[in-house]
Automatic annotation (TrEMBL):
GO molecular-function terms, A-Z: single-stranded DNA 3'-5' DNA exonuclease activity; single-stranded DNA binding
Upper lineage: Eukaryota, Metazoa, Chordata, Craniata, Vertebrata
Organism (species): Sander lucioperca (Pike-perch)
Protein name per UniProt: Meiosis specific with OB-fold
Top-level taxonomic group: Eukaryota
Signal peptide segment: none
InterPro entries: MEIOB, NA-bd_OB-fold
One BP term from GO: resolution of meiotic recombination intermediates
Amino acid sequence: THSWDREAIQLVQTLIPKETVLFIADAKISFDSFRNGMTASVNSKTIITVNPGKISQRHLHKHSLSYNLDSITDVYTVSQVKQKTQENPEVFFGITYGFISKLDLDSSVSKVIKTRCSRCKFQVTEDKQSCTNLLCPGRDQALASSTGFDLLVDITDHTGTLHSCALRSPVAEQTLGCTVKEFTSLTDDERTAMKWKFLLERCKIHVKVLQLLVLCRVGLILACSVADPGEVKQHMSALLQRL
Ligand SMILES: [Zn+2]
């Protein structure tokens, strides 16, 4: 599976049903006798345009950029992240010092841990024979799935809130300091305690942000740990000086 496929599927997954129009050019269309319908598959030449006419296509070619955590050094406030994504609809990486203001670790386990197709990362149920995603590059094959943390969290600082940023495995394991298996054996009280450990602390959060259209911003957390207070002070005073 090319990383592009995974990115494309993740992109499609995050779109808002019924509110988003997709224009897909150069996809391979074929008749699938098993599903008795037409299917589309994507490759590196495929261009998916979200709400055609509203945004540039440039980001689609850029958003598969690989990253290295050490190379991410630019620090932004939440409002600067929002401003940057609106001005420049391309993927970018940055660090924000904020609080995790929404972290539903104490809701049902099915909301915290999800099973996804290993090929396209689409959410599936393990009882299925094959992936149910029409764009999956491995739809014809037996389902290969993996189960991991899959959370949407909010990041808040003094300038605002970034809603629904994805915190997934393996970053979530590192952040929470616990494996999926360990998490499933925690009591409700232990899960609540884990949640509050983050809600009360300012964290250093590495993010990858992609603006798909005016109302749809996709944030992916690449790393998150409780921030060193001295480091926070240093960056906060630098941010204030720039104002
Ligand atoms: Zn799939």
